[in-house]
From TrEMBL:
Coiled coil: none annotated. It comes from the Eukaryota. Residues 1-45 form the F-box domain. InterPro entries: F-box-assoc_dom_typ1 (IPR006527), F-box-assoc_interact_dom (IPR017451), F-box-like_dom_sf (IPR036047), F-box_dom (IPR001810), SCF_F-box_component (IPR050796). CDD domains: F-box_AtFBW1-like. This is Putative F-box domain-containing protein.
Amino acid sequence: MADHLPEHVIVQILERLPTKSLIRFTSVSKRWRFIILSDPHFAKSQFQIGSHHQTLRHRLLISSASESRFKSLDLDAPSQSPLGDICSVRCPLAQQPGSPPIRILCSCNGLILATLEDQENNMYIWNPSTQFFKNLPDPADLPSKPQCLVYYGFGYLSATDDYKIIANLEVILGGEVEGKEMHIFSSKANIWKRTESPLDSDIQYEGTLSNEALHWLDNLGILAFDLAKEEFRRLPLPILDGDFRGLRAFGDCLCAFDFENLDLWVMKEYGVADSWTKLFKLKVSNQPEKIFGCWPMSVMETSTFLQKGPLCRGGELVFDLIRSVHTEEKPEMHVLSSDADFREMIEYQETLLWLG
């Protein structure tokens, strides 16, 4: 028997391991470090295998309101250990004290789209699992923050291996909306381009990725942007009782909810109105007023993670991070953390991917 396994056999073993273990194994040798952190084929293969077997870990990235500090919560931890694996995350984008805070906007395949507060032209891609980051080209004609509202989306096209970022802008002059623009970044072309924006829409929040399309709620329902065709289309909403609504991804499906009743619906067949199915109704004690309410941050098979608040507690406004466990017999709810310093929370997967 040979003393050493052939490298291709070692690679086949490694690409079936979780990302966290692989990061530890980068210290085994320079060759292993190169394969794990610098080989794009290995990173894609490990991601594809993990996606197919549903073994990629899901985490929640939590940013601080006062400074550029981040924590990461393991969403796959057993419900018996509600805090699970929560740890601090170093961000290579962190600036010197007094510099603008880092905003995390949305995620795709373990990559985070981030920007600096009030500096919308400074956009970055960051992988919290590997510490990879890349400064994106400057969209020169993107108006400055005081002049516009910007809502983003971040998605991936598998057929062309192309990541796309969408920036929907409302240009504000004198307190009124004077125009709307949309800018699209392609990782393949490494450029931004400007295109038409649906002028009848009132887009809010960041886009939700599902079926290689980005989705926003507006005043008319769901507005979907096909990343391949770069075209908008309308999708039906389920009948939601509440006035305050939101979208999330549930596996490969689109999920809709309302803040007031916390009913969660899933579109089982994409684009088909009759396929909307009610998943469950979340039970949350002492629910705050609907204008704040509870915001589902991640919807999974066994649990939903919510941000609740702000709540007045001890003379200050705080947010609760809650895990609601889906059991028919007795719904369980765990308060994971209470903090006045919560800013943004984004679900992401542990991957080795990066942008070249």
